[in-house]
Structures are given as structure tokens and as C-alpha cells.
Write a structure and sequence with these properties.
The radius of gyration is 21 Å and the shape is globular. By secondary structure, it is an alpha/beta fold. It contains 14 helices and 16 strands. A hairpin with a 4-residue loop joins strand 6 and strand 7. Helix 5 crosses helix 6 and helix 12 runs antiparallel to helix 13. Strands 2, 3, 4, 5, 10, 14, 15 and 16 form an eight-stranded mixed sheet that branches. Strands 1, 6, 7, 8 and 9 form a five-stranded antiparallel sheet that branches. The structure holds S-adenosyl-L-homocysteine. The site of S-adenosyl-L-homocysteine has 19 residues, from helix 4.
Length: 347
């Protein structure tokens, strides 16, 4: 039975499901979910291309960032943790960039937080020394540097739409032909709401749970988290759920489990939760600001001079990472830290 058939049967028996339940099933169903079966991140047949897959410069700069932050922590033995490492390319570049840094590799216990079995296998090929965890809470305690690129956008969202009578939750149900379709719950009265009818609000319960895990860890030992993702600082009230297959947007209910299903990240909410918990928050700033702050243009020039034959490609990669119409503006970077640490590099 396909995931679509399973979902149709589930809805027939239990009624419509929330967008978060639908997204969770599409991504994480243990038999037919996208990440369990066919995550396609890099290469020609990929569904989407991430920054580390686009250019080695990205991971190298994150590596230098880690080196800087390790130094600020006083060079302790520490966990170098990556959330959702995909094919392991980012961590591989981080490790290469820090190879000659005295003591860094010996001090680092590499922990990869990953739920996808096929991706764990790919990660093991690139980073044989790592250990794996299913969630951040399972990583060993102690000082930590935590990085995550395009991890938060996988967190399932619930969607609410303002109507004349109050808010309606968006649901996934069935039409007459037993096809999956979006629908709305009955109105939930919201007398004080100032939102125009049609405004969409999104909340990500799993993201909130992750921030609590981060808070606990950052209060227990000196640690810092760097999160990079596409998202917004001020919610625009729009529906940001999207399905990507082979680099193209596809219908979100037509091929459940076969496309990558993501939502834009609410960075204001991440910052608010972290501040309420007493963490230090830097950013969000754009990916272009962050990478420029770390010296990506200098790194690009050095690489281009050393490899004139690849100058064109390097220029394209640089533009992809920081161009305002590419990843430079849509992608944001935020850093959460234990209280009382000096400011992180790049902000
Ligand atoms: N960081 C990588 C991959 C991004 S795709 C890159 O930039 O190329 C998202 C990654 O997060 C995948 O590795 C996916 O399997 C993993 N992932 C998604 N949800 C997860 C969860 N809840 N717990 C752990 N890993 C998760």
C-alpha cells in the first residue's frame, strides 16, 4: 500500500488530519516517508540543492566559525554536533577546514543527529569517526558546538487562516473522488484578532520542542548553536508550505512521501523562545551578511587565484551563496548561546 493509500484510509476512518500530521507522515513515515525512502539532496537527480552541496566555501567558513568559537570556549573537549547532516558534506568540509588546527580534531566528539537510515549510511561513508543520535537530547552532555543547515524547515507546521468568524485550522481531507485535498476546520472564535481574513499563521510544535532541548543543553554547559535556514523575521501572513521534487515545486497533496515537504522558518519565534529562556541571541541576519562577515569574498579570491581554471565556477558558487536573488537574502542565520559567552564571529 502506498503512503497515499494509507493516508486516504486513515482519513476515511479518523477524519481530516492537521497539516502537521500530514507533513510528519510525508517526511517521517517509517516505511514510505520521504526521508526514510528517497531523500535526494545533492547531485543531478536531486530534489533540492543545499548550500554545502552548492559550494565547499560554505562548509569551510562554518569550519572556521567552529574553530573560532572553540577557542572562545577555552578549547575544551567538546561535542561537535550537526542537526540533520544530509549527505555529510557540510561536516566533511568543516573537518577539512579545521584539519591543521592544533588540538581541534582531538577535542571534538562528532555527533550527527539524523533520523533517516539511508542518509546515515551516506554520512558514515564521509565521516566514519562520528557517532549518531536520533535527537539532540541523546547527544552526550558537556560543552558543545551545534550546527544545523536546512534542518528547521523540516519541522511540521500547523496552519491557521483568519476568517470572518475567527480562525480556521487548515486540514487535509478527501474530496468526492477520494483524493487528498486541503480544507478548513470550523471557525475557532478569536474576538481580539486584528488579522485580515485570509491571513495565514503557521506554528511548528516540533520546532518549539527542539528549542527547549537546546535551552536545556545550553544552560547545562557552555555551548552555542548556529542555525541556517530559509525563513522570515517578520511573518507575512502567507502560506509557506512547499513540496519540491527534482528542483521544481509540485502539488503538495498529489505525491505524498515522494517530494520534500518544507515550510519557511519563523526566526522571530526562535529568537523569542530563546530569549525567554535566558539564552543569548545573535541575529537573525541574512546568509549574505553572515558569510561576508566571515570573509567569504576573500576566501573566494584566494581559491580563484589558486585555481584559475575554476574561476567561473567559483564565481557562480559565490553568487549562489550570497546573491540577493539566490540564497543570500531568503536564508537567515541565527546563533543561540549559553549566557555570558563573548559574541560569536560573523554577527
Ligand atoms: N544539512 C544538510 C541536509 C538538509 S535536509 C544540507 O545542508 O545539505 C534535512 C536533513 O535533516 C536530512 O538529513 C534529514 O534526514 C534530517 N532530518 C529531518 N528531520 C529530522 C529530525 N526530526 N530529526 C533528525 N534529523 C532530521
Amino acid at each position: 500500500m502506498s503512503l497515499k493509500e494509507k493516508l486516504v484510509e486513515h482519513i476515511r476512518e479518523n477524519g481530516p488530519m492537521t497539516v502537521a500530521e500530514y507533513m510528519g507522515a510525508c517526511l517521517y513515515d517509517p516505511e514510505d516517508g520521504y526521508y526514510a525512502t528517497r531523500p535526494a539532496i545533492g547531485g543531478a537527480n536531486a530534489d533540492f540543492l543545499t548550500a554545502p552541496e552548492a559550494s565547499q566555501m560554505f562548509g569551510e567558513l562554518i569550519g572556521l566559525w567552529c574553530a573560532h568559537e572553540w577557542d572562545l570556549l577555552g578549547k575544551p573537549a567538546f561535542n561537535l554536533i550537526e542537526l540533520g547532516p544530509g549527505r555529510g558534506v557540510l561536516m566533511q568540509d568543516v573537518l577539512r577546514a579545521t584539519q591543521r588546527l592544533e588540538g581541534f580534531h582531538d577535542a571534538a566528539n562528532i555527533v550527527l543527529v539524523e533520523t533517516s537510515a539511508p542518509l546515515r549510511d551516506e554520512q558514515a561513508d564521509r565521516i566514519p569517526d562520528a557517532e549518531w543520535a536520533l535527537r539532540l537530547d541523546d547527544a552526550p552532555p558537556g560543552p558543545s558546538l551545534i550546527i544545523g543547515n536546512e534542518f528547521l524547515d523540516c519541522m511540521p507546521i500547523r496552519q491557521f487562516i483568519a476568517g470572518e468568524e475567527g480562525w480556521h485550522e487548515k486540514l487535509v481531507g478527501l474530496d468526492e473522488a477520494d483524493q487528498l485535498v486541503f480544507g478548513l476546520s470550523a471557525a475557532i472564535p478569536a474576538p481580539d484578532s486584528e488579522d485580515e481574513p485570509g491571513t495565514v499563521r503557521e506554528i511548528a510544535p516540533a520546532l518549539e520542542a527542539l528549542i527547549y532541548e537546546i535551552e536545556r543543553r545550553l544552560h547545562e554547559a557552555p555551548a552555542r548553536v548556529l542555525l541556517i535556514d530559509y525563513g522570515y523575521v517578520r511573518p507575512e501572513g502567507a502560506d509557506t508550505l512547499q513540496a519540491l521534487k527534482n528542483h521544481k515545486k509540485v502539488d503538495r497533496t498529489e505525491t505524498p512521501g515522494e517530494a520534500d515537504l518544507t515550510a519557511h522558518v519563523d526566526f522571530a519565534r526562535v529568537a523569542q523562545l530563546a530569549e525567554q529562556a535566558g539564552l543569548a541571541v545573535h541575529g537573525p541576519i541574512t546568509q549574505a551578511q553572515f558569510l561576508r562577515g566571515l570573509g567569504i569574498e576573500v576566501r573566494h579570491d584566494t581559491l580563484a587565484q589558486a585555481n584559475p581554471a575554476h574561476a567561473e565556477r567559483l564565481k557562480r558558487e559565490l553568487n549562489r551563496l550570497i546573491g540577493a536573488d539566490q540564497m543570500g537574502a531568503l536564508f537567515k542565520v541565527i546563533c543561540l548561546s549559553s549566557p555570558n559567552l563573548p559574541p560569536p564571529a560573523g554577527f
